[in-house]
Amino acid sequence: MTAELTGPAVTTVEIATEADLIRVRQALRAACERAGLGLVDSTKLITAGSELTRNILTYATRSRGLLTVEQVHAQGRSGVRASFADSGPGIPDVAAALTDGFSTGGSMGLGLPGSRRLVDELEIDTSPAGTTVTVVKWGR
Amino acid sequence: MSDTLPILKIGDTLMVALQGDLDDAAVVRIEEQLTREVVRVHARGVLIDVSGLTVVDSFIARVLARVVAMIRLLGAQTVVVGISPAVAITLVELGVPMGHLDTALNAEQGLALLRRLRAEADRGSDR
Amino acid sequence: MVVEGSGPESGARLRDLEAVAALVSDGIVSLDPEGRVVGWNRAAASLTGYLPEEMIGRPVSVLYTEEERAEGLIEAELGGARESGRFDGEGWRVRKDGSRFRAEVTVAPVTGAGGELTGYVKLLRDVTGRRADQSMFNALLESAPDAMVVVSPDGRIALVNRQTEVMFGYTRDELVGQPIEVLVPQRLRGRHVHHRDGFFAAPQMRPMGMDLDLFGVRKDGSELPVEISLSPLATDGGKLVCAAIRDVTERREQAERLKRQRDEIMELSTPVIQVWDRVLALPIIGTLDSGRAARLTEELLEKISELQAEVIILDISGVPTVDTLVAQHLLKTVQAATLMGATSILSGVRPETAQAIVHLGIDLGRLRSRNTLREALQLALQVIRDRSTSATAAAADVAGAAGVSW
Q1: Which of C109, C178, C287, C391 has the most CB atoms around its CB within 10 Å?
Q2: Chain C touched by A3 (CB under 8 Å)
Q3: Nearest Cα to C59, choosing from C90, C86, C81, C38?
Q4: How far apart are CA C105 and CA A48, in angstroms?
Q5: Residues on chain A touching B62 (C-beta within 8 angstroms)
Q6: Does residue B110 form part of some domain?
Q7: pTM
Q8: Which of C336, C401, C405 lies closest to B89 in CB terms?
Q9: What residues contact residue A128 under an 8 Å CB cut-off, 6+ apart?
Q10: What is the pLDDT of residues C193-226, one digit of tens each?
Q11: Which residue range or ranges hold the STAS domain (chain B) (predicted)?
């Protein structure tokens, strides 16, 4: 297998106010188009990104975060990886946060479990210094 | 998205088409404008066309459900039309409870459904 | 080796020597200056099958093959020893029974007090086994279709074969002495060191990373998918591990091709059929896994949108068992179709399927169900008729409305 050496094409979007939601969706949509994802897969990823952005706006102290979007390749497939980082208080119980109906922010708590169902991979890296949720959606 | 939402009135039915990438403020404005308009024109039915929305996340879905509940309290029925396959699958996977939403494929079928819903409501059926 | 052969103490010395000679496991043969046997130890006897009494006084040349005798090898050995004080060689020797053995030979001259030659001492060692092991091992290693890499406990490469050079693009010299991790992609190295230590702690023959996709990295930085089996090697030099590395690029590509073909066949085998104007049927046949269920749902929803279908019939008579997973997929499909505004009808539900769905506690909501596809179609047409009536009435409402205003 030869390693594909296409440019990394990394996009970042700051997440500070609700207006940034639109910019998050646009950045994800552009990445989905570049990676050749279908309409259904794109919609799922953009929606998951929307939910994760709302999580940051709801939970993170000082309400600040950063989205990093990049294209990924493996075994002949292209995909999009999106990392949502915040400097919020962290998630004390990751397993619980991934359970439907769990919420400390007053919403329905669909953010993490819902997002996980919409993507192919979801990874949470959390500490009291902040949380990074990384999702990957692969093309078919 | 302009500040005022174009709301079309046909008989006693209101029709509104949501389009593009909606920010939360725009979504909340729709709620206010639609409920005000239902009361102002004594509408009996509302058709919300969402075929122009590329993304419906849990927030937008919740606001839609809220609008429908408010409109029902104001004496009218609401039908949401034009949910695309991608949005439908996404909402189901996301797990947003949408069971109480009345939906139709297009405006024509939406109007037909509104008529049936009104007939049921007027008969006093407890559906 | 130089042995003094005369003088007043030489007799005692020679007896000591004989006692030593009787103990050692190498064959020790003493010769006179002409090459006749004057001493023959126990090991020489067991090595050749000739007893001392049979050999004393005979020329040592009986041990040589005819060809070697003809070539004057004995003279060459003795001459070499005489000139340089020692001769080392290796060759085939013949036992009393005619069988041959590979011998490692060392010959040293024995001189008298005045420096004159009094004879020779010759050491014989059977290296037949060692030689065969070595050459067979080398041949096996070199001809192996896999890259074979022998690793020492400190994780460094001790030995590689030709195929390793071909597979990874390094020469032997570049690899030997390097940590084995040079062949592991950067991103996996840390983990690899950990696993490697674990293996040396409890070595046993096994495949590496069972069910994992393993990768190696070539000198040029490109990666290749590999399969690796590990075997512990107990050697004189200590505990080693032999890793057999196989390039599975082709096999993985083939597996993926097969999977794609299977997917395509699966998709063909479950088409969405338009059974009536605005009525679609989806006969589900076979087992539903998540990937296939997702594709079926997408295909169905696309068709609903494309054909503006108002009723869909999900026929599950071809599904062998309805478990939680299948039921949940069905439920999701129905929910998504409902969101789009289509009515779903389930058909082909067998008694055991009905029991399963209810026992599983799955709420299919207001989903209507019919026993057969025919009954389901009748219901679908009824739904369409009802909808048409209200659609016509609705159209009349609109036409009769006072007007359109913004």
Answers
A1: C109
A2: yes
A3: C38
A4: 80
A5: 108
A6: yes
A7: 0.60
A8: C336
A9: A89, A90
A10: 777 777 777 777 676 665 567 889 999 988 888 9
A11: 3-114
